[in-house]
Amino acid sequence: MEQLFQLSVSPGSGIEKIRNMGFSDKSKLTVQRKNQHLQIVLENDVLHRDSTMLEDVHLLHNALPELNLDDIELETEFFGKKLKAPLMITSMTGGADYAEKMNYGLAEAAEIHGIAFAVGSQRVMLHHPEVTSHFAVRRSIPDGVLLGNIGAVQLEEYPLEKIAGLVEQIEADGICVHLNPGQELMQAEGHRKFHGNVDMIARLNDRLEGRVLVKETGAGLSPQVLERLSAIGVRYIDVSGTGGTSWTKVESYRAQSKILRRAGKTFSNWGVPTAYSLINAREMLSDDICIIGSGGIENGLDSARALALGADIAGFARAILLAFMDNGVQGASDFIESNIYELKTAMLLTGSQRTGDLQKAPRIYTGKLLEWLKNSDSHLGDKG
Ligand SMILES: Cc1cc2nc3c(=O)[nH]c(=O)nc-3n(C[C@H](O)[C@H](O)[C@H](O)COP(=O)(O)O)c2cc1C
């Protein structure tokens, strides 16, 4: 762990750079935390112990699809614009100098393939407008969907107008508000107060006329949370379920205190699996709510299964980050291209011409997912 911290203050690193930028102690801490997160995700096993449960969704092979590969239609609408494929790069980067490179690079890869891109937390911009350029990547994604990002807990800390301003400052189409109470509780400096989050999200959503996407950060959304978000008029919901990056686990690598290190490990598998969260979302939410299926999406078959369960869009963070770190924009672009090819393959092999057709594709549920569904005390069936 010591070594990790030393690495993040090496000459030329983000921390070294911001030391010379006159940041407040609070902002330095935010940037340092983002650097450590990135390093931990790249160098350690940060995955949940259990899977997304998407592998328990068996789409039935159709050997007579009566479709040509060219007939497959992936276009979809998102934030009032057309995506060429129903995919998005979910929020990751915010903070010091690596963020700038990553945001521009990932935005460029998204633009090449006509998919959506969300920047990471813009919290640091609230104190240091001089880092706006790290997030303002509109010129890399001129026609596509670009989204901002802020934590729900920050909505209590800053005036609503300041938060709403984050959208315009980077010429975004909307903003993602992330929910991460589990992660906060594993941080020594994290928030402990979550009362009032629902009201603040509702106010921001009204102020931005529905251009708010509420997401988890890899711990999933339960039926109760889906219901609350729907009740306050949120129109974009990313379940970001378990099976991919575990943020409680990431924090256990950072924790200095024994208590938090232990707690991070104890809760490293905590949350609602992506597949289960998606099935609930589709059953409970009305059709005009756009559902994003993310959390542990590694390839195009995962994307296809997420769409089959009811997602309108599939999203990925860690998997494309690894591809980007491996080979820059080309690596990220190749990852998206593979994902699209595999998604199209799954669509053809289930006889699904349009992405919406995947929802009707014959399938069998097995294993843990079936067990969860059987034992579910959710409101499946009460379509709102
Ligand atoms: C390095 C890294 C940084 C992240 N930073 C943010 C962030 O600033 N805001 C946010 O909403 N989510 C953030 N996330 C969470 C992802 O958007 C996503 O919800 C979560 O990692 C689960 O998806 P995955 O399994 O595909 O990684 C981050 C993820 C990674 C890997």
What does this 3D model show about the protein?
With 384 residues, the chain is an alpha/beta fold. The protein has a single domain (30-374), classed as Alpha-Beta Barrel (TIM Barrel). It contains 16 helices and twelve strands. The strands form three sheets. It has an eight-stranded parallel beta barrel with strand order 4-5-6-7-8-9-10-11, surrounded by six helices. A two-stranded antiparallel ribbon has the order 1-12. Helix 7 links the parallel strand 6 (146-151) and strand 7. Helix 3 (25-43) packs across helix 11 (247-254), helix 4 runs parallel beside helix 15 and helix 14 (300-308) crosses helix 15 (318-348). The longest helix has 31 residues, at 318-348. The chain is globular, with a radius of gyration of 20 Å. The chain starts with a helix and ends in a 10-residue tail after the last helix. Bound molecules: flavin mononucleotide. Residues 37-38, 41, 90-92, 94, 120-121, 149, 176, 178, 215, 217-218, 240, 244-245, 294-297, 316-319, 321 line the site of flavin mononucleotide.
